[in-house]
Amino acid sequence: MPIGAEYTSPSPYDWVPPGGGVRWARVGELGWHALSLPCYLGNRVLAGLGEASGAVIEEDVPERLVWLIEPKAPAVRHLGDHEEITVTGDDGSYLFVPGMARARLVWWRIPPSPDRLLTDADQLVEAIAVLRPGVRP
């Protein structure tokens, strides 16, 4: 499925709202944490990951890409103070989870599927490190 296409198929997960709806979800309650980057960096990271990327949410305001990652992934623990990277999890953070149809300013850049949900945190950090070498621990 091409990146950025319109997705209207039913969601494989009950936590994804129907159609073009949006759910305001506490990060961590759905079995994953999140790492987000501004789009100017995130687009390059996404291209570097290619098919290794899991599902990705794009937010148009502010412009950022959000990857779903394993909870408490050791590979991202040191990134909490990085100015371009936001890691959220069991810290009371919330995230907009879009429906499968793009109808708002929050949409699936890469939609979730049973075989494409979480991005491997080690691979994600490596893809970021190609562009920002200082992110390696």
Descriptive account of the structure:
The structure is a single chain. With about 140 residues, the chain is α+β, with helices and mostly antiparallel strands. The protein has one domain (about 20-130). About 15% of the residues lie in helices and about 25% in strands. It is built from 2 helices and 7 strands, in the order E-E-H-E-E-E-E-E-H. It has helices at about 40-50, 120-130; strands at about 20-25, 35-40, 55-60, 65-70, 85-90, 95-100, 105-110. It has a 5-stranded antiparallel beta sheet with strand order 5-2-4-3-7. A two-stranded antiparallel ribbon has the order 1-6. Helix 1 crosses helix 2 (about 120-130). It is globular, with a radius of gyration of 14 Å.
- Number of individual domains: 1
Structural class: alpha+beta
Estimated share of beta-strand residues: 25-35%
Major β-sheet annotation? 5 strands, antiparallel
What order do the helices and strands follow? EEHEEEEEH
CA gyration radius, whole angstroms: 14 Å
Helix run count: 2
Q: What's the average pLDDT?
A: 88
Shape assignment: globular
Bin the helical content: 10-25%
The number of distinct β-strands equals 7
Poorly predicted parts: 1-5
Strand line-up of the largest beta sheet = 5-2-4-3-7
C-alpha termini separation: 34 Å
Name the descriptors.
single chain, 137 residues, 5-stranded antiparallel sheet, 7 strands, alpha+beta, globular, two-stranded antiparallel sheet, disordered N terminus
Summarize the SSE layout with pairings:
Elements: E1 22-26, E2 33-38, H1 39-49, E3 56-60, E4 63-69, E5 86-88, E6 94-98, E7 106-110, H2 121-131
Antiparallel strand pairs: 1-6, 2-4, 2-5, 3-4, 3-7
Helix pairs in contact: 1-2
